[in-house]
Amino acid sequence: MTAPIEPRADLALMEGYHSPQLDVAVRLNTNEAPVPPPAAFGERVAAALGAIDWHRYPDRSYTALRMAIARLHGVAPEQVFAANGSNEVLQTLCLSYGGPGRTAAVFEPTYALHSHIARITGTTVAVGERDADFVLDVDEVRSVLAETSPAITFLCSPNNPTGMIEPEDLVRTVAAEAPGLVVVDEAYGQFAPWSALELVDGERPLVVTRTFSKTWSMAAARLGYLVGPAWLVAQLDKVVLPYHLDALKQVAGTVALVFEDEMRARVAGIVEERGRLVAALADLAVDVWPSAANFVLFRPRERSGDQVWKDLVERSVLVRNCASWPRLDGCLRVTIGTPAEDDAFLAALREVLS
Ligand code: PMP
Predict the structure, then answer these.
(1) How many whole angstroms separate alpha carbon 297 and alpha carbon 56?
(2) pLDDT (tens digit, 9 = 90+) per residue, 213-237?
């Protein structure tokens, strides 16, 4: 059937973002945490729900949550902006600092939503390239900045889907030389040894985005945030829809942060498990890239990535199929799961590759 009306011309040719889900025993395709938050988290959230005034709009400024995030990072509450997933944080940034006539720079391959959200908000996308091993060269960054003068420059560290961190030197250079806003997406930040949070100050147009979806084991809640200068947060507060953070989510996020020690212990466990998985992959006929995240990118050397993905699905193991993505020819991405899930993945992969 032809649609009775057409969308905006620039949207007509765009694809939506998809991460296909299949009914399998072992799901290692969306970089979620392998285990839920502690039981005490659920009990405290349940107790707090009784105090919600359901007939009233929620606290528009999400004061308690904002203060808790600010305390976590040792910044002022005015330096924190939260939204429904870090994707909505990125969207609010693009709505505020991108838009028609402005450019956002991305360095591919990277998180697909950076360019997708930029385009949806009418922002022109300038694409810089990583080298064949997905390393970003500072000269490439400089030439993109010089040629396109982006209003927004996206970095992603650790980078999805490669898992690699951007070196501190490179982030510092971009922070010093980019003409507009620098967004460092640290959705996987707690898995990595260094954070750009130390570059955030009161003036510099640089923000670091984080999410509750991975390290905090709260993908179901849809909650993310940024830390940045207060003048920029004030701008985002104007742009985002009123009451965008519902009362339930505000409670869940605030309570989650009480369990920071448990989060750190989970992250340490995942990092250890990542080491075990990478060591096991090294014995197989695959190329593996060094990961500082909760996932690992690999490429079967002797079989097509697409076929290996299908064979894994047949064995009820789902990983992310990046094999046909630009610049990621033949690559697959596996999320670190529980030791049992990772064993199931490794056993299936050994079988498939043999
Ligand atoms: N940034 C990166 C790099 C991601 O990989 C993801 C999730 N896949 C997000 C942001 C978005 O996370 P969320 O919206 O769940 O906070």
Answers:
(1) 46
(2) 999 999 999 999 999 999 999 999 9
